[in-house]
Amino acid sequence: MGWKTALDQKVEAYLPELTWLRDEPLARHCSFRIGGGAARMALPKTAEELIVLDGFARALGVRTVIIGNGTNLLFPDEGLDALVIATPEMKAVRCEGDMLQADAGVSLARLATQAWQAGLTGLEFAHGIPGSLGGGVVMNAGAYDGTLADVLTEVTALFPDGVRTLRREELQLSYRHSIFTEQSDAVVLRAALVLKRGDRDAIRARMDELMARRKASQPLEYPSAGSTFKRPPGRFAGRLIEDCGLKGAHVGDAEVSTKHAGFVINRGGATCADVLALLEHIQNTVFNATGVTLEPEVRIIRRR
């Protein structure tokens, strides 16, 4: 019996309410709109469902790939012979005083809105970030001089040896980095954020200001995975790319945005191969001109 049939049977028997998809196009589950099919995909609604499912996969030796809203991912054109666990249905949020507790699948944009509604300040930077809390924790997401490191207080995650809750000082948070960046076999389940009381009108005004800046400067009208490269120390990736004359450079339908050179966009028919070839061209051109090595911020999911 193959792993797919074995996993189908376990899910049918023990998780009958689970959303379970076969040969699901990955392009439907990422903002780049690129990627072949996932052999199996699950959308658990609770951490408990995810934990049981992860246990099944480990027992069967099945490769698992955990995703949130897919806003920072590039999937292979050939798809994945794996179990993809997507967390967007894990979306419970609870507000207690100055603290927000939320499941990994909650979008950062929604959290920012709920903070505003509760009169809490500290998450305005996340307004307009479409990624999930879980993915945001993994990469210590941030924008406009704010990061999750500023507000995270604890994270509950599934490790190979069980579920553990880590305090902020254990998370190893730095620029686009956390303990989960290195420990890829751990899965963020939920997190708690401590904010401050603020004026709701001022919070809303700041959120609106940041959204206007996003719309004015970023190519939101095209599929992309957000900022393509991490910021080199003391430099800006977009500026380096623009100064090298790469705005508008393209491979197939993958293009360096003419609006913001820090974004590689999909003009409609881009493949993973197109994007990877363009990223390599950008890296080589920038390195040859400046000596700076650009490191992708986009998480590239390999076929194997």
List keywords for this structure.
alpha+beta; 5-stranded antiparallel beta sheet; Uridine Diphospho-n-acetylenolpyruvylglucosamine Reductase, domain 1; 4-stranded mixed beta sheet; Uridine Diphospho-n-acetylenolpyruvylglucosamine Reductase, domain 2; 30% helix; 8 helices; 304 residues; Uridine Diphospho-n-acetylenolpyruvylglucosamine Reductase, domain 3
Structure description:
With 304 residues, the protein is an alpha+beta fold. Helix content is 30%, strand content 27%. It has eight helices and 19 strands. It has helices at residues 3-14, 47-60, 108-117, 133-139, 179-182, 200-217, 237-243, 272-290, and strands spanning 19-25, 37-43, 64-67, 73-74, 80-86, 93-96, 99-103, 120-121, 142-143, 146-147, 152-159, 162-167, 187-194, 196-197, 224-227, 250-251, 254-256, 263-266, 299-300. Helix 1 (3-14) runs antiparallel to helix 2. The protein is globular and about 55 Å long. The mean pLDDT is 96.
